[in-house]
Amino acid sequence: MSRRDSHRILILGDSHGRHFNQLLRDKLTSNFNIQSFIKPNAGVAEVISAVEDKIGDFNEGDYVVVLAGANDIDGCYDSTGVSSILAAYGELLNKTTHTNAIVSTIPFRHDRTELNGLIENVNGWLYNMCQKHSHVATFTINNILHRRFYHHRGLHLNILGKKHVCAHLKGLAVQYVSEA
């Protein structure tokens, strides 16, 4: 299969994105070329910092998947912290206009449930921001995840949760290909 016949997917993520490359590859056909760039313990800005270098030759048949933000929420005690998260996502949206992007909302924190109200607010703002861009799909991750999909400590997804998320990402990938 020539490179022109394949669709490229780049997964950018913090530690939540570990193993998504292989799990998604196992669910998709061979006409998808999947790569990942994972930065454990990183915030959104750091996760997406290399996006331009990695997607320079992407086109409307390719897309970037972003899974990040849970690490940023820990330090969000005021509007400045929230603004920096949204600014980083805004930068991503502006750098991906030549291709497609799937932006995951920030997953709930079952280790620090007191942060979930803030996460819900930030996710609402993120969703509204993404809706203004025709090349972006928002993946509302908390609509499909439940506590059983997390490790016992409650921050990271377990393998069942990762497989569940990848099944939904597969649906979005196939949808993009059929619309292209």
Question: What is the number of helices?
Answer: 7
Cα distance, first to last residue? 18 Å
Q: Report the average pLDDT across residues.
A: 90
Strand proportion, as a percent range, falls in 15-25%
Derived structural class: alpha/beta
Largest sheet: 5 strands, parallel
Number of domains: 1
Number of strands: 5
Task: State the CATH superfamily name.
Answer: SGNH hydrolase
Order of helices and strands: EHEHHEHHEHEH
- Low-pLDDT parts are none
Helix percentage range: 40-55%
Query: Which CATH architecture?
Result: 3-Layer(aba) Sandwich
Looking at the structure, what is the overall shape?
globular
Spatially, the strands of the biggest sheet line up as 2-1-3-4-5
- Tell me the CATH topology: Rossmann fold
What is the CATH domain class? Alpha Beta
Using only C-alpha atoms, the radius of gyration works out to 15 Å
